[in-house]
Amino acid sequence: PAIGLISASLTLHAPSQIAASVKTHPQARGLDVSIAMLNQADYGALQAALAECRAQNIGGAIVNLPLESAMAEQLARDNPDIHCLFLDVPPDSDVASLLFDHQQGCRAIVDHLWGLGHREFGFLAGPESAISARLRLHAWRDALHRNGGHQAITAFGDWSAGSGFIRTVEMLAQQPTLSAIVVANDQMALGVLSALAQLDRREISVTGYDDTPDSQYFQPALTTVAQDFRLLGERAVALLAEPARHHHRLPTRLIVRQSTA
Ligand code: IPT
């Protein structure tokens, strides 16, 4: 038997870690994983990927692509013979989902910085089209307001280190008094740290999100929110065997290193 994985671009660290986990887990149980990589949420391309699963007699697919609720719900409706488990949809979508608790992770980051005395924040979100990017931005803002803060400027990157570098230069031109930059993933945070070093603004605190294996070797080592992608992959494979339309949640963990002070 085999399972399908429909994934966002594997050039990004998080989706490649998830794919690696899905791929190594089922091998132990003698399953084959058929991977389709999509660059964006195009309904025709999603349908084609599921048609390919059907042709290979695959009864369950893990969908790690940012999808709006309506699109995920329609995909599940249009393919009742293939059990789809979604990893990147809004939490209230009426489909089977396995998601990290973004509220917990985002609150932990903002509370940590607030506790260190930071009051002027830059929020560097992921692409506006990404569900997880929007959820994280809303949760940071919410956590800031709970602490009684309001000062934050917002920018959007594309998850890459290059976008982190450019947006940092722009944000600091707009708001030179920023004391902390909260970033939606570790890859962008790498570019943020590089820009701050070049601008000689190393006193600015930076946080990431994901805790991919490289992050502890960034200069300085990155404070971030760990999402356990190995556990996500294992849990996803196990849940594919349960065709119920459940919402499953995984915890996140704040990892404090040297990039925050
Ligand atoms: C999410 C990552 O946090 C982010 O860094 C980026 O790689 C994105 O995936 C790509 O889609 S994790 C996802 C399970 C929401």
Key traits:
single chain; 261 residues; alpha/beta; Rossmann fold; 2 domains; 4-stranded parallel β-sheet; binds 1-methylethyl 1-thio-beta-D-galactopyranoside
Quick structural summary:
By secondary structure, the protein is α/β, with parallel strands linked by helices. The protein has 8 helices and 12 strands. The chain starts with a strand and ends in a 6-residue tail after the last strand.
Q: Could you explain the architecture of this structure?
A:
This protein is α/β, with parallel strands linked by helices and 261 residues long. It folds into two domains: 2-99 and 229-249, Response regulator (Rossmann fold); 102-226, Rossmann fold. The chain contains eight helices and twelve strands. It has helices spanning 13-28, 43-55, 69-78, 102-115, 131-146, 161-174, 186-198, 229-240, and strands at residues 2-7, 32-37, 60-64, 83-86, 97-100, 121-125, 152-156, 180-183, 205-207, 224-226, 247-250, 253-255. The strands form four sheets. It has a four-stranded parallel sheet with strand order 2-1-3-4, with helices on both faces. The longest helix is centred in the N-terminal third of the chain and has 16 residues, at 13-28. It is elongated, with a radius of gyration of 19 Å. The termini are far apart. 1-methylethyl 1-thio-beta-D-galactopyranoside binds at residues 8, 12, 14-15, 64, 66, 87-88, 130, 132, 159, 185, 209-210.
